[in-house]
Each structure stands twice: as structure tokens, then as C-alpha cells.
Specification:
By secondary structure, the protein is mainly β. It has one helix at residues 109-114, and strands spanning 7-8, 11-12, 17-20, 25-26, 30-33, 36-39, 43-48, 53-57, 70-78, 82-92, 95-106, 126-133, 138-141, 148-151, 162-164, 167-170, 175-177.
């Protein structure tokens, strides 16, 4: 039995809604978005009913990323020069590990020149990228066979986009959007968007 002030635990992945901001305050490894407290990483939910704080314990051990490592993240900011990514996972030696860091993609216009479908990425997209530079923030590229957007939402209605004939399509709005799409779009190994 859980007593007053003790924590309740369940397992979540990035994007899962933990609680609403009217019930709890956002804690470690969470984001507050549209009055919802959302998991920013995989791990066990810790809801402290005494302190009214919802957090996620991701059990992260210290991992040092290397050039060529594959990372998973969410697009947080997108402007004409640079895209900011919140990195939530890293593949090392074929094993996916929880990892939290900031990263960026520079010169998105290079993707647009190479591939018409690679028109852009949007805020909220879940991506798989490759580390090309290690520093204070990781520089990421989406160039590569397995790399690109894994999940995306419609920029108009926010419904999850489905892949139809090589283009992302919103079944709610009946419109298509362009992205640099990973070959396994819609079934990512890491991170899931919930409705």
C-alpha cells in the first residue's frame, strides 16, 4: 500500500502524458506543454503526492557520445539557419541507451537542395540522426540511409501524419507535408507520439 507522500511508479517513453499541470508540477526529465506534463525520456514515472511533482527516472548512466553515433531526438526549434534538437536516446554498440543532451542541425537548406522531399523538419518531429561533431552541443546530420523523421504531426491540426506514396499525409486535413523521412517512418525503435 502506498502511504501519503510515497511515490507511485509506471514506465513511460518520450511524449507520454504523465499528468496535467493542474494536478502536478513538472519535475526532472519532463516538459510542460499545453497544460500537460509530458515525459522527455524513457523511464519510470515518479509521482510524489506530497510534493505534487511528476518526474521521470531514466536511470541514465554517463555516456560519452562519439562521432558516427546514432541519436534520437525531438525537434524543439526550427529557423532558417539551424534546427535545435532535444536528444533523448543514443545507440552505442548496437544498444539503445537513454541519453539527454542538446543538439542541432546546421544549414537545413543543404537538405532541400539534395532532395525535394527533404524540404524541412518541423517542431515536434521525432528524428533519428547521426553525430558529426561533439562539443558543448552535438551537431547532428540527417544525411544517411536510416536517418530522418520517424514520427511527425500535421502542422495545421496536430494529428499524426501517415506515409502515403513517399509523402506524409494528414488524414484529418486531407493535405500532405514534406519531410526528410526515415525509411521506417511510423514505427520508430525509440520514442512514440501519443494522441
Amino acid at each position: 500500500m502506498i502511504g501519503m507522500g510515497e511515490e507511485k511508479t509506471t514506465y513511460v517513453i518520450p511524449g507520454d502524458v504523465l499528468a496535467y499541470s493542474e494536478e502536478y508540477l513538472p519535475g526532472k526529465n519532463t516538459l510542460e506543454e499545453n497544460s500537460r506534463i509530458i515525459s522527455a525520456t524513457s523511464g519510470e514515472v515518479k509521482k510524489n503526492d506530497k510534493e505534487l511533482v511528476a518526474s521521470v527516472d531514466n536511470g541514465i548512466k554517463r555516456i560519452l557520445p562519439r562521432i558516427e553515433d546514432i541519436v534520437y531526438g525531438k525537434i524543439m526549434k526550427n529557423d532558417s539557419r539551424q534546427v535545435s534538437i532535444q536528444i533523448v536516446g543514443i545507440e552505442q554498440n548496437g544498444i539503445l541507451e537513454n541519453y539527454m543532451a542538446d543538439g542541432y542541425i546546421r544549414n537545413m537548406q543543404d537538405y532541400k537542395k539534395e532532395d525535394r522531399r527533404a524540404q524541412t523538419v518541423h517542431i515536434g518531429d521525432l528524428i533519428r540522426g547521426k553525430v558529426i561533431r561533439v562539443g558543448q552541443n552535438l551537431e547532428i546530420t540527417l544525411n544517411g540511409n536510416r536517418l530522418g523523421v520517424l514520427k511527425s504531426r500535421c502542422s495545421r491540426c496536430r494529428e499524426v501524419l501517415v506515409l502515403k506514396n513517399g509523402v506524409l499525409f494528414c488524414e484529418n486535413c486531407n493535405r500532405s507535408e514534406m519531410r526528410k523521412i526515415a525509411p521506417d517512418y511510423g514505427s520508430p525503435e525509440f520514442g512514440e507520439m501519443k494522441k
